[in-house]
Every structure is written in C-alpha cells, then in structure tokens.
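Progress note, sequence design subtask.
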C-alpha cells in the first residue's frame, strides 16, 4: 500500500514537471515572437534617419560629449576652488604639481570638445575650413588664461553671499553647499566660452548647472562682480540680461523676454530681449522683470511677486499693494 502511494506521488511530480516544461516552452515561443518584431522596428528607425523630419547625427565626425563637458566643468571647479572638491589632499608642497596635472588634463579635454563643436558647426552649415583643431586649442588656452581672474571674481561672489546671508556661518559652507555659488561659477566659465563663439559647449555647461541647482542662467548673460543668488531655485536669467555690481536676487526671480511671435523671435534672436539691472539692485522672490528696454535703476529694490515690464528709476522701491488676508 505504501509503495503504491509513493508511485502515485512520483506520477504527480512527473506530471507537474511536464506541466512546467510546457509552460517554459510557451514562454520561449512568446519571447521568440516578441524578438522577431525587433528587426522590423530597427529597419523603421534606420529609414527615419533618412527623412528631413527627424533629428540625428549619423556620420563619422563626432559630436561633443555631454559627459566630457560635465567632467571638464567639474575639473575647472576643482581648480577654481583648490582643495575643496579634489579627492587628494593639497598643501603648499604639492600645489604646483596639482595645478600642473589638473591644467594639462583640462586643456586636453576642453580643446578636444571645442574642436568637435567647431567642426560640427562648420559641417552643419557647409562653411569653409576654419582650422578647427588649432582654433580649439587657442580657445582652450584663452579660457585657461582667464582662470586667475575668475578666481578673484568668484572670491568676491563668495564674500557677497556671506555678507548677504546671515545664515551663512563660514566661507567654506558657501563654497561647499550654496547652489547660487555653483551656478555663478559655471556661468562665469561658460560665459567666457560663449564670448569666444562656442555656444554649444557653453550651453551644455549652463544646463548642467541648471539641472543640479534649479538655477537657469544663459551663458550669454553679462553679470558683474559680487553677485549673490540666495536660495536660488527657479531663478531664470536670459541671454541678453545685463547685471551690474553687487546685485542680489532671490529664488523664483525671472529676468526674461516678453512673449513673441515666431516671426519676431527670428528677427530678435540677436537683439537685446532681456532686462538690465544696474548696480546694488535687490530683487526679492518671485519677481518677474521682462523686456530688453527695461532698466532697473541702481540701488532699487524690487519686491516679491511683482511684474515689471517698464524701466524703474534709480533708488526706487517697487512693491505690490498689500493683499487682504481673509480668515474663515
């Protein structure tokens, strides 16, 4: 009787194994059917690259690498703030060695990426040869020459943050953790490349800072010394904005352009479309200042959540009328 029971159990196990095997075969067949669709999709994607309505870069000439540009930006930050973001300890003994190594690597990466950008633009617009490799190296060394001056500018930005924010306990805290300082650091680098007519690289840099901080500064914007963005999230500074010295702005501020039609956008692409803030202006959170003819005069204060599309004389205070609170 016991042997018969064991035999039944074995038969049940065999039946279950057969059922599992059948299920596996069904899954394999379905998977094969799904995979059989892939070649048709691949062919469709290849055909789409031959149509004028798609965007792709299929060719032997490499585009700049977004990852390389980001790494290059981080390298520059390590040189601009030596000892803060490096993985190795830096002292007076190895400082020259550190800068020499870092600068050489930075030059090679930057010149290569700039060369790729120039060559791509040249091919895209069917321009005559501009010796892009030589030009890439020249632009790279021009930016490197600016690094000592940039360190001085950024030191003034750090002090402006410390003087303007009572929550700041040290300069170290600002360099390590303030998003506004990181955004202006990347901007001052990107702006130098933008001025040398390398918009693609500079825009990748600025959008990297934007993605990290929530602060959107177009690399074409002109920003004076001792600039401070407090908190920073949601700040937008347009391409043709001009900002004077010792200006302070808060989170959610927009320095933008007025809405334009498609035809007007094409006509004004190279014109001034964004406002000017003169020296010692303060703009509080949520304020929106629009238009290329709009000038905020020196020492003026723009209150929170205001909407400004006309110029403001120096020493002005612009606020909205005090809203009425309703308690129920």
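Output:
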């Amino acid at each position: 009787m016991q042997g018969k029971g064991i035999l039944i159990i074995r038969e049940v196990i065999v039946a279950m194994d057969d059922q599992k095997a059948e299920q596996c075969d069904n899954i394999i067949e379905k998977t094969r059917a799904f995979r059989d669709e892939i070649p048709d999709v691949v062919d469709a994607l290849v055909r789409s690259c031959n149509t004028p309505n798609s965007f792709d870069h299929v060719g032997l000439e490499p585009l700049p690498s977004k990852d390389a540009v980001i790494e290059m930006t981080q390298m520059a930050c390590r040189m601009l703030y030596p000892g803060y973001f490096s993985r190795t300890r830096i002292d007076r003994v190895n400082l020259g060695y550190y800068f020499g190594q870092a600068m050489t690597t930075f030059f090679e990466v930057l010149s290569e990426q700039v060369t790729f950008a120039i060559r791509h633009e040249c091919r895209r617009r069917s321009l005559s040869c501009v010796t892009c490799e030589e030009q890439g190296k020249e632009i790279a060394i021009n930016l490197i020459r600016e690094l000592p001056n940039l360190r001085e500018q950024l030191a003034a930005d750090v002090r402006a943050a410390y003087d303007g924010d009572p929550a700041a306990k040290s300069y170290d805290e600002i360099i390590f953790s303030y998003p506004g300082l990181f955004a202006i650091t990347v901007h001052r680098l990107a702006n130098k490349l933008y001025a040398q007519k390398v918009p693609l690289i500079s825009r990748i840099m600025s959008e990297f800072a934007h993605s990290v901080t929530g602060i959107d500064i177009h690399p074409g914007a002109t920003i004076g010394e001792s600039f401070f963005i407090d908190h920073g999230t949601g700040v937008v500074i347009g391409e043709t904005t001009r900002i004077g010295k010792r200006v302070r702005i808060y989170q959610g501020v927009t320095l933008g352009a007025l809405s334009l039609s498609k035809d007007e956008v094409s006509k004004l692409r190279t014109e001034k479309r964004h406002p000017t803030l003169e020296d010692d202006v303060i703009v509080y959170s949520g304020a929106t200042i629009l238009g290329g003819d709009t000038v905020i005069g020196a020492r003026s204060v723009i209150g929170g959540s205001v909407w400004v599309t006309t110029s403001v004389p120096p020493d002005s205070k612009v606020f909205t009328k005090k809203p009425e609170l309703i308690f129920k």
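The domain at 234-320 is CATH 2.160.10.10 (UDP N-Acetylglucosamine Acyltransferase; domain 1). Work on this subtask will continue into the next period as scheduled.
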